[in-house]
Amino acid sequence: MKIAHVIIDRMARGLDRAWSYVIPEGMDIRVGHRVHVPFGKGETLGIVTAVYEYGTPDSAADVVLKPVLNVVDPVPVLSAVMIELGMWMAEEYLCFPIQAYKAMLPRNIRLRPFSAPTQELCQVVGQRQGRPSKRQQLWDILAERGPLLKEELLREMPEMRQVLRDLVKEGTVVINRVDSASPSFPVVKGHRSPFTLNEEQMHAVTTIVEAAPGSKWLLEGITGSGKTEVYLQIIETIVQQGQQALVLVPEIALTPQTVRRFQSRFGQAVGLWHSSLTDSERAKTWQAVRDGHLAIVVGVRSAIFLPFRDLGLIVLDEEHESTYKQEEHPRYHTRDVAFWLADKTGTKVVLGSATPSLETAFYARQGLIGWIRLTRRIGTRTLPPVEIIDMREELQEGNHSIFSRALQQALTRALDRGEQGILFLNRRGYASFVMCRDCGQAVQCPHCSVTLTYHQDQNKLMCHYCFYTIDPPTACPHCGSRRIRYFGAGTERIVEEVMKLWPGTRVLRADRDTLSSRHSYYQLYDDFVNRRADVLVGTQMIAKGMDFPHVSVVGIVAADVALHLPDFRRSERTFQLLVQASGRTGRGDLPGVVIVQAYEPEHFAIQSAATHGYDDFYNQEIQYRRELGYPPFGNLWLLEVADASEQKAKETIHRIFEKVTGLMEMGIEVLGPAPAPLPKVRGRFRYHVLLKGAKNPRIMAVLSEIERDELSCSITVDPYYML
Ligand code: ADP
Ligand code: ZN
Ligand code: ZN
What we know:
Layout lengths: L1 E7 L9 E6 L10 E6 L2 E12 L16 E2 L8 H13 L4 H8 L2 H5 L6 E7 L9 H12 L2 E2 H7 L4 H10 L2 E7 L19 H12 L5 E6 L5 H14 L3 E5 L7 H11 L3 E4 L5 H12 L5 E4 L11 E7 L16 H12 L2 E6 L4 H9 L3 E5 L11 E5 H6 L8 H12 L3 E5 L9 E3 L16 E3 L4 E3 L6 E2 L13 E3 L4 H11 L5 E4 L7 H12 L5 E4 L12 E6 L13 H13 L10 E6 L5 H7 L3 H15 L6 E9 L2 H16 L7 E13 L2 E10 L3 H13 L3 E5 L6
Parallel strand pairs: 9-14, 9-15, 10-12, 10-13, 11-12, 13-14, 16-26, 17-24, 17-25, 23-24, 25-26
Antiparallel strand pairs: 1-2, 1-4, 3-4, 3-5, 6-7, 6-8, 18-22, 19-20, 20-21, 27-29, 27-30, 28-29
Bound molecules: adenosine-5'-diphosphate and zinc ion (2 copies).
């Protein structure tokens, strides 16, 4: 008698363990199958996580077992590796296993039975007839190349569709449906690379191609150093060896050029995976990956769960981007999952960035992962000079505009010459704190050395760690200046200012409000690159991977606003934004200049961005992380309560606080309880407690108990945003 362990589709604490059921005689059930099982008074859907013979030690607790009712799909929907990954995720990210499994399956595969993978194989029968016609031509091709997949054949020769039908009718070709148990990739007929790699690129490609299975790499290369070309060439080898490759990008809509490069190199062998796909497109791509019809996928983070048959390589492009962290359950980080897959399945992982996350840079420097650097830009192009403007001086000298004189001059010159400019605004950090325009200081908590956050609804400044609350001051506590205010200048303000200073200028605005759909993003890119506008004003969403050859000025309006956020990654993010934004110019034949406006220009994140010095930045930032025990030196756990009743939310967070105070003895720092920086969201009051320290079994036990008992509490491991 065989027993199946089944995780049922109920998200309730206590029900999230694997339940045992008897597999009826003759029912084919394997790990990863979906099944219906009796549960309580009714029945429920579940996923099989283990199958074993009754009587083995595992089954000791199985007393009287009910049978599985039926199997949903002819083949398992998840591989054994994915089942194991789900278990790991449940533990690591404190979620229900079923949440992990659901995240791995596209919606309509979740809802419907799923077909077995089959392929249509075209094969000749009989003898050559020898007549000069299209029919004969196709017959000859099939005879010579052996049985070919219909899909692949028609992809290669779409004009032969009718001819193939005729041959089948004639009886000289047959099409068989076969179970595609073994991988069969389309022949990747890509265009070969038009480039000869430079020495650094060549070294990168050979090193990674020849590396052991499961190896992990940081490919650290300045913008324009040819990282994408390196990915392309490694992938060429991977697919030639019959393996699949996955290229992850932070956001498909924001990286149209990268996507196009993969498509033009590998054509139909490339599938896309992103949030604008319809349910049926999703299901189709999912199956095509499983059946081996797609050799390469370019996609966003959830593509990491696609059912690859034999994944040889995972690339995380712009690996530092926060979109690789999922904010909802299961709150996984794509990099962690990629590393897990590397260890488990031998897939190689390449993390690419000009500005790696501190974690990745640290692992590379410690030798925990491989480290390859590309230090030169392709061709003769150089990184643009960066000029830092101290906005306090501008004020002292009577310039009250949000644009410094240097930026005004540079933009005027560019516009006169018919060149383009980009103005960046760092959206994070606006209007949430109070800053002095004279000395550049933000108002701080006297107890916690974090910036106080402005709460508009109550017109108060509040510390999110200790609750310290004051009325917004009318004069600067540092220098007494009255030019103190909460900081705010949205993209609209900047557009207005541009129109005022340069009447008649054609301005495009790009932020979350103006760009809601993928279409409008392409439109915007197209409009700007084709010079239907002179100035582009936008937030960080336009700072990534786009080439604008006619841009000769990049202005960063207030580079340091985000340095005051209560966020331990604030310096890292500011540095990354500045470097990425600078990379938007100097890409064509124009030399280009970058003007960085700041109120606290001496900050190392700004200084090192100006010299494009990642090492400088890293060396200072890593010291700060080490001293304060932030990642990569310790973990963070954000315990957050959200409740429609403020009273209840407070009670709960205090109860949770009591449960974690014991951890302080073992060196875990417990911060809070305090209201979340966004204290009320969608009518729910939010409070949090932050834990900081080295991960150990005791902490994990306490946390999983809290996760189990406190229904309104959610726990995020190493949160990206604490807002
Ligand atoms: P990155 O991804 O590091 O920003 P890319 O791979 O996009 O760099 O390369 C920058 C530009 O240089 C692209 O236009 C690319 O087509 C071109 N390029 C890359 N490698 C080479 C090479 N070996 N020879 C000539 N041009 C190259
Ligand atoms: Zn001041
Ligand atoms: Zn405080």
